[in-house]
TrEMBL record, chain A:
Source organism of the structure: Ambrosia artemisiifolia (Common ragweed)
UniProtKB keywords: Ribonucleoprotein, Ribosomal protein
Record has Ribonucleoprotein as a keyword: yes
Domain Large ribosomal subunit protein uL6 N-terminal: 3-61
CDD domains: KOW_RPL6 (cd13156)
Example GO molecular function: RNA binding
Keyword Zinc-finger recorded: no
Protein name as it appears in the record: Large ribosomal subunit protein uL6 N-terminal domain-containing protein
GO cellular component, one term: cytosolic large ribosomal subunit
GO terms of biological process kind: cytoplasmic translation; ribosomal large subunit assembly
Superkingdom assignment: Eukaryota
InterPro entries recorded: 60S_ribosomal_eL6, Rib_uL2_dom2, Ribosomal_eL6_KOW, Ribosomal_uL6_N, Translation_prot_SH3-like_sf
Family assignment from sequence similarity: Belongs to the eukaryotic ribosomal protein eL6 family.
UniProtKB/TrEMBL annotation, chain B:
Homology family: Belongs to the eukaryotic ribosomal protein eL14 family.
Pfam families: Ribosomal_L14e (PF01929)
Domain Large ribosomal subunit protein eL14: 44-116
Cellular component terms (Gene Ontology): cytosolic large ribosomal subunit
Keywords of the record: Ribonucleoprotein, Ribosomal protein
Protein's recorded name: Large ribosomal subunit protein eL14 domain-containing protein
Originating organism: Ambrosia artemisiifolia
Domain of life: Eukaryota
Entry GO MF terms: mRNA binding; structural constituent of ribosome
GO biological process, any: ribosomal large subunit biogenesis
Length: 233, 133
């Protein structure tokens, strides 16, 4: 189709009810202009010549037939897609994490990664939650939103959060132990800088709303009399 | 012994069913158990008395008025404001507000309650000091 503006074509034969069109076969023949196409072509509908079928290479009969029938796996055309994001989750929504080290923490949602996990940040200065991935199922969505237009999260993807592959080095025993101690605890400086840059803009927009900072710093818990099925988040 | 009577013009609160929580006017009595009931935003229909709770408010109408007359009579008697200023009406409004609170709103209320309690406690301490002094 040409990329110009064309009005979407209304169907030529609208349904009166399902299965019954408005126009009969003869009327449709006329509407489609098949008579005009035939007239242009001298009385018959224009035909293409069939392309000569490429000669299939002669298949040799197989040398080996398995004793019992081998079952073929069924066709599976499903594609892997990231989990469908709940409509209530938009960038800047405050989420409550329900499981793991940070359970109960209220956290700001940034974006959904291609694996389906949600990229989320504390911000780190406010509640100690770093840039982290979280599964949508382990999260309560609140209706509180923070302005995240000033934050750039383009560079974060699943590979950024993957485990670092250690190069296997053949070394003697003494050096082996030393190497283990070094690699354990250090968080690379560039990750710390990423955290700071993401949080700087976020914290500004959080401080613009009164009480929001202490809200994000506090953990959520069920108190006496709170009925989760009746609570509005 | 009885103060609120079923009469034409009595305002009642629906306590069961599709119109739960609505204020309706009793517009006619059908038999021992049912009344014809009407409200500005609903189609006039019958309701069992068991579904109604009578209020103190009464308006001045004749048996089965037009919708227009009914609305005019309700405006004249100022039902809405009377209801919203009554302690019963205010209670219901507060209940609805509490039920619709956001998680963030609940947090803000907690801070406010703590602050208020702190102020009260300070005043109490001052008074206690004066009493013992």
């Amino acid at each position: 189709m040409a990329p110009q503006q064309r009005k979407p074509h209304v169907c030529r034969n609208p349904d009166l009810i399902r299965g019954v069109g408005k126009y009969s076969r003869s009327k449709m023949y006329h509407k489609r202009g098949l008579w005009a196409i035939k007239a242009k072509n001298g009385g018959a509908f224009p035909k293409h010549e069939k392309k000569a079928a490429a000669a299939a290479p002669a298949e040799k009969p197989p040398k080996f037939y398995p004793a019992d029938d081998v079952k073929k796996p069924l066709v599976n055309k499903r594609k892997a897609r990231p989990t469908k994001l709940r409509a209530s989750i938009t960038p800047g929504t405050v989420l409550i994490i329900l499981a793991g080290r940070f359970k109960g923490k209220r956290v700001v949602f940034l974006k959904q990664l291609t694996s389906g996990l949600l990229l989320v940040t504390g911000p780190f200065k406010i509640n100690g939650v770093p840039l982290r991935r979280v599964n949508q199922s382990y999260v309560i969505v609140t209706s509180t939103k923070v302005d995240v237009s000033a934050v750039n999260v383009e560079k974060f993807d699943d590979k950024y959060f993957g485990k670092k592959v250690e190069k296997k080095k053949k070394k003697g025993e003494g050096e082996f132990f030393e190497a283990e101690k070094e690699e354990k605890n250090v968080l690379p400086q560039d990750k710390k800088d990423d955290q700071k840059s993401v949080d700087a803009a976020l914290i500004q927009s959080i401080e613009a709303v009164p009480d929001l900072k202490s809200y994000l710093g506090a953990r959520f818990s069920l108190k006496a009399g709170m009925k989760p099925h009746e609570l509005v988040f | 012994p009885f103060k609120r009577y079923v009469e034409i013009g009595r305002i009642a609160l629906v306590n069961y069913g599709k119109d739960y929580g609505k204020l309706v006017v009793i517009v006619d009595v059908i038999d021992q158990n049912r009344a014809l009931v009407d409200a500005p935003d609903m189609v006039r229909g019958q309701m069992n008395f068991k579904r109604l709770t009578l209020t103190d408010i009464k308006i001045d109408i004749k048996r089965v008025p037009n919708k227009k007359t009914l609305i005019a009579a309700m405006e004249a008697a100022d039902v809405k404001n009377k209801w919203e200023n009554s302690s019963w009406g205010r209670k219901l409004i507060v209940q609805k507000k509490r039920a619709s609170l956001n998680d963030f709103d609940r947090f803000k209320i907690m801070l406010a309650k703590i602050k208020k309690a702190g102020v009260v406690r300070q005043e109490l301490a001052k008074l206690k000091k004066e009493a013992t002094a």
